[in-house]
Amino acid sequence: MKRMKEIIEKIKSKKGFICDMDGVIYHGNKLLPGVKEFVEWLIKEDKHFLFLTNSSERSPKELRDKLNRLGVDVGEEHFYTSALATAAFLQSQKENGSAYIIGEAGLINALYNAGYTMNNVDPDYVVVGETPSYSFEKITHAVNLVLNGAKLIGTNPDITGPVEGGIVAATKALVAPIEMSTGRKAYFIGKPNPLMMRIALRKIGFSTEDTVIIGDRMDTDIIAGIESEIDTCLVLSGITSRDMIRNFPYRPHYVLNGVVDLIK
């Protein structure tokens, strides 16, 4: 009990908080326990915080509106997505390029705002993100575009993601058939890619020593923090159970049941 109290105090002493969303803040359209109080605490204590999500489906405005509907009111500036990171990366690689996109509005708008045009004939890139409209026809088209020279990009390396009823296939699983059919490997932008973490730290405005990353995935959130030398807090409210931790050759600095532990 004393050990847990010390852990919570160490986490709460941090000045910057980088938080994943799926499995930490909500499951689908269900807000997780303690989230509203946790966000209120962040604001009250004048903490700098960023919701950093590997999901590419929604824009920061849509994420803000979603949290607002769930009873949590935070500004749009507190959100950053793998779609935005992907758009920034592609713009740095080739200005005003073109892409064939398998994904939703958040990804399409991010690329459009970065100066990219949509191209299903001879694009510079094939970009894949989460989408419920995945189809054999789109896979086939993407395979042939990649074979004809388009570079393959995944918005994030998540294989699955948590929802209210269980889990769903995420970007890496959707990219896999294209990789297997073409023999080409995708480049994934989201966590644990250092690109995402550098952007997050710039937005937070604090050093690695003053920041903690809170996430539910060992293979993205926790390894991203470890490789960026940021303290890591694994919450068991998402896709990772306590028993699963031993399957990885690294460990989080802290383990909590959920953000609810921080406001008890």
Q: Secondary structure elements and their pairing?
A:
Elements: H1 2-12, E1 16-19, E2 26-27, E3 30-31, H2 35-44, E4 48-53, H3 60-69, E5 79-81, H4 82-93, E6 98-102, H5 105-113, E7 117-118, E8 125-128, H6 136-147, E9 151-154, E10 160-163, E11 166-169, H7 171-182, E12 187-188, H8 194-204, E13 211-215, H9 218-227, E14 231-235, E15 254-256
Parallel strand pairs: 1-4, 1-13, 4-5, 6-7, 6-8, 8-9, 9-12, 13-14, 14-15
Antiparallel strand pairs: 2-3, 10-11
Helix pairs in contact: 4-5, 6-7
Description:
- Helix 4 packs parallel to helix 5.
- The chain has 9 helices and 15 strands.
- The protein has a 6-stranded parallel beta sheet.
- It is α/β, with parallel strands linked by helices.
- The chain has 2 domains: 13-52 and 192-241, HAD superfamily/HAD-like (Rossmann fold), CATH 3.40.50.1000; 83-188, 3-Layer(aba) Sandwich (Rossmann fold).
Can you summarize this structure?
Helix content is 37%, strand content 21%.
Net shape: globular
| CATH top level class name of the largest domain | Alpha Beta
The CATH topology of the largest domain, please? Rossmann fold
The percent of residues in helical segments reads 25-40%
Structural class given helices, strands, pairing? alpha/beta
Can you tell me the number of structural domains? Answer: 2
CATH superfamily of the largest domain: HAD superfamily/HAD-like
Features:
264 residues; alpha/beta; Rossmann fold; 2 domains; six-stranded parallel sheet; five-stranded parallel sheet; 15 strands; 21% strand
